[in-house]
């Protein structure tokens, strides 16, 4: 990606990071998928809503090839499919079959998968045969299992999922140091001016990234402000695969209980990393020292409020657009009192039709902050979990009145 002249790529060493074994595996997976741009194989099974027949597939040229057959599966038990067989068509129940030539892998796997107990027809050609010798085989979709690589005492494994861990293997998270990325987005007149500019940090939502969310600066207006678009610390493999672009989150993708102290540690590390990035920008660019402002969307709004709760003496204001709510461990009465004493100005904006973070949750949070005598501006507008033109206009008004004005 080529950035405009006023976009600067920065990297900095993050503070403590939390990473586990399964997170590392998923990071490597998402990185490989991003490198090639698509999934080159697909296991036709889902562990939850859908079932499959037990084959792995690959597209080679124009052909859809069977690359593997799970022994304990409908296909494996039938003995009707072999490695290197070609699939010409896929049909659902009694419906006409559909040719797979030209289909994307994700569409093919959608055709092969289906409800548990439903039927799927495959038109198959054996290696070396021409299409005139094709045959049709029918399977009832069902569950399938493969031996767990950890051993028999770890329980059966489901193809396409991470194997369950036996009792003698413990998943742990521990701090580490790594590189974090952010964008410095300079105002249009930066090269022609000698003045210093206020800083506004942009915090994307879960599954987003700093490059995509950094474009919000153009909606808000780049005049008179240095924006810092921060990348969240943890890779989000599911988002990377679903959105076909790098995705990041504030928390590890490892299964962690909601009451685990690991989540609080990860949150604090993320906030500290934000201020490390700010310090780097204040050192290397003509950025005003002192208090900063933050603009966060969804998860980013939650992080912005957490930053204000942890370090109110460093925050002038934050704007939460469709922001989610931090855990109770963050919003203690002592921290809310400090936010009041430091006169942190809070702006909250929420879409009335938001199905991801209900407007009722945002309204309850606003009431709680107001009850602590914190300066809160809360507005509900038409829209869902998004940034519409109207929402961007409200954000621009906040920038004009609070960030750019210097008041």
Describe this structure in words.
This protein is elongated. The relative contact order is 0.11. The protein is α/β, with parallel strands linked by helices. It has eleven helices and 19 strands. The strands form four sheets. Strands 1-11-13-12-16-17-18-19 form an eight-stranded mixed beta sheet, with helices on both faces. Strands 3, 4, 5, 6, 7, 8 and 9 form a seven-stranded antiparallel beta sheet that branches. A two-stranded antiparallel ribbon has the order 2-10. Helix 1 runs parallel beside helix 6.
Brief summary of the model shown:
This protein folds into 2 domains: 7-17 and 178-403, Alpha/Beta hydrolase fold, catalytic domain (Rossmann fold); 37-147, PDZ domain (Pdz3 Domain, Roll). The protein contains 11 helices and 19 strands. The chain has helices at 21-36, 74-78, 105-112, 210-214, 216-220, 237-243, 261-284, 299-310, 333-341, 359-371, 389-403, and strands at residues 7-13, 17-19, 41-43, 55-60, 63-69, 86-92, 98-99, 119-125, 135-140, 174-176, 179-185, 199-203, 226-230, 234-235, 248-249, 292-297, 315-321, 345-351, 375-381.
Largest sheet: 8 strands, mixed
CATH superfamily of the largest domain: Alpha/Beta hydrolase fold, catalytic domain
What CATH architecture of the largest domain would you give?
Answer: 3-Layer(aba) Sandwich
Per DSSP E runs of 2 or more residues, the count of β-strands stands at: 19
Tell me the radius of gyration. 26 Å
- Helix count, DSSP H or I runs of 4 or more residues: 11
Distance between the termini: 37 Å
Task: Look up the CATH topology of the largest domain.
Answer: Rossmann fold
Structural class: alpha/beta
Q: Give the proportion of residues in helices.
A: 25-40%
Could you name the ranges where pLDDT drops below 50 across 5 or more consecutive residues?
A: 1-5, 11-49
